[in-house]
Design a protein that fits this description.
Strand content of chain B: 15-25%
Shape of chain B: globular
Structural class of chain A: alpha/beta
Strand order of the largest sheet of chain B: 8-10-7-11-9-12-13
Structural class of chain B: alpha+beta
Distance between the termini of chain B: 62 Å
Oligomer: heterodimer
Number of helices of chain A: 4
Largest sheet of chain B: 7 strands, mixed
Helix content of chain A: 10-25%
Strand content of chain A: 25-35%
Radius of gyration of chain A: 15 Å
Shape of chain A: globular
Largest interface: A-B, 46 and 44 residues
Radius of gyration of chain B: 26 Å
Strand order of the largest sheet of chain A: 2-1-3-4-11-10-9-6-7
Helix content of chain B: 25-40%
Number of strands of chain B: 30
Number of helices of chain B: 27
Order of helices and strands of chain A: EHEEHEHEEEEHEEE
Chain lengths: 214, 729
């Protein structure tokens, strides 16, 4: 499958995601932020992590308004699955494709390390082969997922909560680590599956996010 | 202004003034003052150290580039090459810790990608004073925040680090950053040399502002106690801009449209222009009026001396300027033609068309004074005893310093992105940072340099700065391919400081020569002194090694892995190696080289399950750092576990029988002793049973800035998935 990997100025996990898709047998292609690649047929879109536009204004806020994002929005409406990792998650929230916002970590510091996760929703293309418990690395300064209590309850009820942390990593509401769109085709994920796709990286569980792209 | 005031303003000595007068045939004038002030500063000219640096061992068959360029380059074979360098940002970080440390990272990265290598790893060597004061806590917090803020954003993983605590750094902290860059297959190695007449000079990157003016000469002076006054000499970094610059620069270099390139680091536009012009052997003509400015009221002198960050100077053929502009535009960067390379050897600077300076750049760059500062040449005889620190000595420091030394440093490294790039194999929680190369071989980075050793005996301390990290690497199967250093010392005009500098450098060099470890790049930081008090002598080293086999599964751990395994302690014959026979180096050192090779081979052969060099805080602290929540340790030896630190000890557990190793190491006159066994979750020493979780918790809570409010350590852990079951809390 051909998979678009979106590149903004300041994106820094683009090559890692590219590598993970290739290792899974997919065919990644880069989409540049200034372009609107309307003609290119892709089966999925991944927005990698990093510091798009230097996190100026607000994480993901500028990227959400870029030309390439209008293309991502069009595709998403047509049912193309979209995955946003870390800064990509922030961009999807800013673009209104996912509910909620990502705030500065409750402890005010950037946090890097391995986390244990629980898969809550299994009925998305992105999560269906992911094991029930898994470990993935995190690396973020603004990963505290926030919605009000009512919305949080609704997200659980509608099966939109994809993953939760097994411990309090950043102060997220209900320890939410990943959120799905209402149609379950768009996933925003704070941890980095592309950093856990072979044993020498420390874990292989991240490859399940990409294997359906082969 | 009379001459004396003028000299003081530009931080030049009377004799340097006389030398300039000799070289020019007259006294300096106008902008010449600023140029000489910057380029003849200690920071830029290495005037106190050059004479000693010349003797360093820097050639081996794998070295493609050593001193003289922005960074050294080593060939790893299989089409892979690495560039690496270490640099200090001590003075600025003391004045403004966040920006000082951040721009230190930015500067060292630029040295790497200016060479054409993609930065793939960072490491840092830090030294702080007593962390009990609010002032020192602020510095610690600021430095870590600055490194984190910059490195995470540019997307280069932090692989390893070292942090010292000692009251000797109360008034001068150390911030040394190391960066490694990778060249694959056909990636060209760039150079600052090679400009020829007809070429165009292009300014690429951020606009020039008023920050960091006189930064180089500031870093070449001792503090007198009012460092806050020096705030305007601090540079401000923007990692987002740096990230764009990395991508744009590499794209230009890899398209083959750049003739030569230099970043604007210390002394900004002055040093890059003068160095490029001098090494090319041709004339440069530039108009400072064409330099993009943040503030249009800046004067030519300010433009020349500004140390604004994220700027590059490049030289290209005129037909390629269009393509340069296109690439710059793609990355939303500004590229401005500011001059050209001409015949002749003069550097001509203009200000809106009018000549303001014409000078032979060679005079400024190559004819800087070289000082042979007085030092005591005789190396004192020593007793090995000096290198055994007993309990009283370890404990004589203040409780806060000791706690900081013995604590787990995860509070620091969990703020660094250690895995961006998708190549990290071992993160900062290991004693050696490891990266996977495209060829699937592994690359390691390890840091060395212990000031208490250098204080005890500078020559031996220099040797140790190479040997200890080499030993760590060989235990994990790595062969050292090169070394970079950052030599942090006090005032070189003092005989004791200069003696420590020369002796430790000689010690390092001796080991490097003997073990064939080329010293390919480095940096000297003098004048780490405040109110006449110098820092402890601190030669920091960064070693890069390669593990030549592809199978990663048998890199031994530096933690205990399974319960119910025998633990052994090896003590290298340190007394013989460094003791009375300190002058009989040939024999002892080559023997040690063989022992290191044996350790590496046995590691590659999969003999070791766990192998870890005992750290300076002693065996007990090392054992505490080897346990996890699931696998503990019990001391079973008849001899009592003391707090004494014995140098060059290694803790092992073996995959097979200890006998195999014991027999192999015997010819070296070394023996290993069984000291205990690993357990299930229990830590037992001195007859006391403790739960491992408790021990780990206490260790992490010793950190000076540990926050009760939020325990970073409880949520995430270092290492890998394997570590989850056995986490280092």
């Amino acid at each position: 499958m051909t998979v678009a990997v979106v590149q903004f100025p300041g994106t820094n996990c683009d090559r890692d995601v590219f590598q993970a898709i290739e290792m899974a047998g997919g065919r990644p292609v880069f989409w540049w932020h200034k372009d609107k690649p309307a003609a290119e047929k892709v089966s999925a879109i991944v927005i990698p992590g990093g510091f798009s536009y230097g996190d100026y204004l607000r994480c993901g806020a500028l990227a959400a308004k870029s030309p390439v994002m209008s293309e991502v929005l069009d595709r998403q409406k047509k049912g193309v699955p979209v995955l946003g990792i870390c800064n990509g998650f922030q961009i999807l929230c800013e673009a209104g494709l996912l509910p909620g916002v990502l705030l500065k970590n409750r402890h005010r510091r950037f946090v890097d390390g391995w986390t244990s996760l629980k898969r809550v929703a299994s009925d998305s293309v992105w999560t269906k082969t992911v094991p029930e418990t898994l470990s993935l690395p995190v690396a973020h300064g603004e990963g505290c997922f926030y919605v009000d209590d009512e919305t949080s309850k609704k997200l659980f009820e509608q099966g939109q909560v994809a993953f939760t942390y097994q411990s309090d990593v950043n102060g997220s509401v209900a320890s939410i680590a990943g959120i799905l769109s209402i149609d379950k085709k768009t996933l925003g994920l704070m941890p980095h599956p592309e950093r856990a796709v072979t044993s020498w990286m420390g874990s292989e569980t991240g490859k399940h996010f990409f294997e359906w792209l082969s | 202004m009379n001459l004396e005031e003028q000299l003081k303003k530009f931080r030049l000595s009377k004799s340097e003034y006389e030398l300039i007068t000799d070289l020019l045939g007259r006294g300096p004038d106008g902008l010449e003052w600023a140029v000489f002030s910057a380029l003849w500063s200690e920071h830029c000219s290495y005037k106190s150290s050059k004479i000693h640096l010349k003797k360093l061992y820097n050639k081996s068959r794998h070295v493609l580039q050593s001193m003289g360029e922005n960074a050294g380059v080593v060939d790893l074979g299989e089409g892979e090459k690495v560039a690496f360098k270490m640099e200090s940002h001590n003075h600025p970080s003391f004045i403004e810790p966040f920006q000082g440390a951040a721009t230190g990272v930015g500067g060292i990265l630029r040295d790497i990608f200016t060479m054409g290598a993609r930065p793939v790893a960072l490491a840092n060597y830090l030294a702080f004073g007593d962390p009990s004061s609010a002032f020192m806590k602020r510095l610690l917090d600021g430095v870590v925040g600055g490194i984190s803020g910059y490195g995470n954003c540019v997307g280069v993983p932090m692989l390893t680090g070292q942090t010292l605590f000692d009251t000797g750094y109360d008034e001068n902290i150390l911030v040394n950053a190391l960066a490694v860059g990778l060249f694959c297959a056909d990636d060209p190695i760039m150079s600052a040399r090679g400009a020829k007449p007809g070429c165009v000079i292009v300014y690429l990157g951020a606009r020039t502002g008023r920050d960091g003016i006189h930064g180089a000469s500031m870093a070449s002076e001792s503090f007198e106690g009012s460092s806050q006054k020096k705030l305007p000499t601090i540079q401000i970094g923007d990692p987002f801009f740096e990230k764009l610059l990395i991508e744009a620069t590499l794209e230009m270099i890899r398209e083959g449209i750049v003739v030569s390139m230099q970043d604007m680091g210390a002394a900004g536009l002055t040093s890059s222009t003068f160095e490029m012009a001098s090494s090319s052997g041709f004339g440069f003509e530039m108009d400072l009026g064409l330099v993009p400015l943040r503030d249009s009221s800046m004067t030519p002198e300010e433009i020349l001396l500004s140390e604004s960050q994220e700027r590059m100077l490049l030289v290209c053929e005129p037909e390629n300027t269009l393509r340069i502009q296109e690439i710059a535009k793609k990355w939303d960067l500004e590229a401005s033609e500011i001059g050209k390379v001409v015949t002749g050897t003069k550097l001509l600077l203009k200000w809106h068309g009018e000549a303001v300076l014409e000078i032979d750049p060679h005079i400024v760059v190559e004819r800087a004074p070289m000082y042979e500062r007085p030092f005591v040449s005789e190396i004192p005889k020593i007793l090995a005893k000096k290198f055994e620190w007993n309990a009283a000595e370890i404990e004589q420091v203040s409780p806060s310093v000791r706690a900081a030394r013995e604590s787990d440093k995860s509070w620091i490294y969990r703020q660094y992105d250690q895995r961006v790039g998708g190549s990290t194999e071992q993160d900062c929680s290991s004693t050696v940072g490891v990266l996977k190369l495209p060829s699937k071989r592994s690359l390691a980075v390890s840091l060395g340099g212990r000031p208490n050793w250098v204080l005890a005996h500078a020559f031996t301390g220099g040797m140790d700065a190479v040997l200890e990290p080499t030993l760590k690497m060989s235990l994990q199967g790595f062969e050292v391919v090169g070394l970079t250093d950052c030599l942090n010392f006090g005032n070189p005009e003092r005989e004791t400081v200069m003696t420590q500098f020369v002796h430790s450098l000689d010690g390092m060099n001796e080991v490097c020569r003997s073990l064939d470890i080329p010293i390919i790049s480095g940096n000297v930081s003098f004048y780490n002194e405040t109110k006449l008090k110098s820092i402890p002598p601190t030669p920091a080293t960064g070693l890069v090694g390669v593990r030549r086999i592809v199978d990663a599964s048998n890199i031994p751990s530096d933690r205990f892995v399974h319960p119910q395994k025998e633990a052994w302690l090896l003590t290298l014959p340190f007394r013989e190696l460094f003791g009375q026979e300190v002058f009989d180096l040939g024999m002892s050192l080559s023997q040690l080289g063989e022992a290191i090779n044996l350790l590496r081979d046995m590691s590659l052969g999969g003999e070791f399950e766990t192998a870890r060099v005992v750290g300076s805080s002693g065996l007990e602290t090392t054992l505490e750092s080897m346990i996890g929540s699931e696998v503990g340790f019990e001391w079973t030896s008849e001899t009592e576990l003391t707090r004494k630190y014995v140098a060059y000890q290694i803790v092992f557990t073996f995959k097979g029988e200890a006998d195999i190793f014991s027999k192999a190491i015997k010819p070296f006159g070394v023996q290993i002793d069984k000291i205990g066994r690993t357990t299930r979750g229990i830590y037992k020493v001195r007859g006391q049973y403790l739960n491992c979780r408790q021990v780990l918790e206490v260790r992490s809570r010793k950190f000076p800035l540990f926050s009760e409010e939020y325990d970073l350590g409880a949520a995430v852990f270092g290492g890998s998935e394997k570590a989850i079951g056995n986490q280092n809390v």
